[in-house]
Design a protein that fits this description.
Four copies of one chain form a homotetramer. Chain A is elongated. In chain A, helix 1 packs across helix 2 and helix 4 crosses helix 5. Chain A has 185 residues and is an all-alpha fold. Chain A starts with a helix and ends with a helix. Chain A has two domains: 44 residues, Arc Repressor Mutant, subunit A, CATH 1.10.10.60; 130 residues, Tetracycline Repressor, domain 2. Chain A is built from ten helices and no strands. At the A-B interface, helix 9 and helix 10 of A face helix 6, helix 9 and helix 10 of B. Chain D binds a DNA duplex (21 and 21 nucleotides) through helix 2 and helix 3.
Chain lengths: 185, 185, 185, 185
DNA sequence: TATGAATGAGCGTTCATTCAT
DNA sequence: CATGAATGAACGCTCATTCAT
């Protein structure tokens, strides 16, 4: 594994477990099995490291969610595909979820980084638009629909983190039902 | 206004605008028009101040949301009452919303403080349970329904903060529709 | 008991038990059952309080040591009288001993305060001078003799504080023997 | 000279000249020609620095006092050797003397550090025991004798610090005479 | 390129002192 | 006179960042 990845992985774990400011760069170096200098050769600052992790996570998320995306399937099928994938991705990668959930809105994440995150929405937006033109989806501003569905998705993962006993498979199906019923017209 | 309130108000504003760690206690003192010592006479540490603000906001939120709550109205009416109030409260108090939204999951907020926040859910949980026994609400674990609806509510406020142009009155109505359609059976 | 004495007694105890800088004036006020303001009405500063205690202790010490001093007894008898009294005084007043032992050389004690302490030496010096002219005492600079005998006296009390098991009456007699044999010609 | 030594030397001087609490760590850094961080890389806290200095001084003292110690010489000769060396060591190293004299009994010096100091006594204790079995030394508890002689030794150095005019060589000889006459039977 | 010892600005916190009551 | 809430300068300590090796 590259030094770069070692550092990002160590930092991801520590930032989530301890918080951003409670994690000194020296600890990131130790856990990442590198020296301080190496980190600063690869990332100009702590803030840059945080942003690099954010962007990488968003990219991985997008890749996972849209891999084998059935472009020509029905709106309903596409909706369930991508929200199902998203939910599963975060359930299996709790560190990644928590990082995004907790730091996305923090001022350390720059506008530029946040824009990368928006890319993910594009196919969703398009799908919802198509659903609206087919009169399958409610006539509500698309971004409002998208936000609503995606934060609904986060809520399940937070619930799971708070209570790991939860019967997951059923919960995921139920959650997709809630989200779809919310937006379908 | 009491010193205590001056300090909490100044801190709330600064913490949201600049972030927790980017706000030195000396700045809180200056904005709160007190000396550092006064803060530390009232709050044992910075962390305690953050938690005190969190708890106060949660209490104010609960008071606002459940004031004149129509206990004997229909489930649908009660649902719209409290989610409508919650949405309006946060739309009118963006600082309060952002503080809760951003710091609730941070490790500085103690479990004890978080429990205060849960109190707020109780009447909502009860309302949903009643709806389920009347077969108006889906047969999905109640906490899942509650989380889903409440984070859906936050999503509108985040949307509004990102894009203040949004036509609010219509959006609130739409949002209540989304949430209700999600959970009704 | 006067406020002044309450404060000095509380401060004496706390300063010895915790150290000077580890004892806030607020704690002195609390233990002395007064307010902060009262302390500052009676003593202009913390330093002044420390010095006032030092001077009072030195005066009490002198009074105790020279009470009923047998002015016309032999040099040997006077020697044993005053060193015996000094030893006993500090053995019975360990707080007082520790305060003087530990803070006398600290820079908080002013030259002026220290001079008060020297008064105590005068009759001792005079006694030693008389002993020298009678050829009973060694021909060594008198201050050297006096210092030697007095610090020897402290050593027994430190020993007692470190090991309270010590058989005291015998130790005091032995100590007087050591000191006398040291200085006698 | 190592950073560690630079820091300890600067701190020794400042602590003696100004007192412990009157010396900020920032001043130690400045005088020691290092940054604050370097101090805290080498010593976990100010207290640890004080203790490290104490232990180092005690070790240096022991080395100086017992170098070329005539193990097989007479008790009298050994007595004069080590008390003579001790006296000279402190007369030549007044900073070192004052540090030990003033802080040894302060609560910042831990029990652990103090124990290091006691090592120094061992050969002295043994020598006195030997003297007692030869009936040269008084039948008084050995620790009492040792304490008496050693604090007697300090008294000369304090006298010298108070009055640097003192004719030293004669005073040292006189002092050894006082101490020996005190303890010999 | 990789390292980690060195740096010092900046923070949270304390506490001697004041002064309105 | 007695009080103690209010003050803010000053301290111990941390940690992001640099740079000589």
């Amino acid at each position: 594994m590259s030094k770069r990845d070692q550092i990002m992985d160590a930092a991801l774990k520590l930032f989530v477990q301890q918080g951003l400011q409670a994690t000194p760069m020296s600890q990131v170096a130790r856990e990442g099995k590198t020296g301080m200098g190496t980190i600063y050769n690869l990332f100009p600052s702590k803030e840059a490291l945080v942003n690099a992790i954010y962007v990488r996570l968003k990219e991985e998320e997008a890749i996972f969610v849209f891999e084998n995306f059935p472009e020509s399937a029905s709106v309903r099928e596409r909706f369930e595909f991508c929200f199902g994938r998203l939910t599963r991705y975060f359930l299996e990668n709790p560190l990644e979820f928590q990082f995004i959930d907790r730091f996305a809105l923090s001022p350390v994440i720059t506008e530029t980084s946040r824009e990368v995150g928006s890319r993910l929405f594009e196919p969703v937006i398009q799908m919802l638009a198509e659903g609206q033109s087919q009169r399958i989806i409610k006539e509500v501003p698309i971004r409002q629909l998208a936000y609503f569905a995606m934060t609904g998705c986060s809520s399940l993962i937070r619930l799971h983190l708070a209570d790991p006993e939860l019967e997951l498979e059923a919960a995921i199906q139920a959650q997709l039902g809630l989200a779809w019923d919310a937006i379908k017209s």
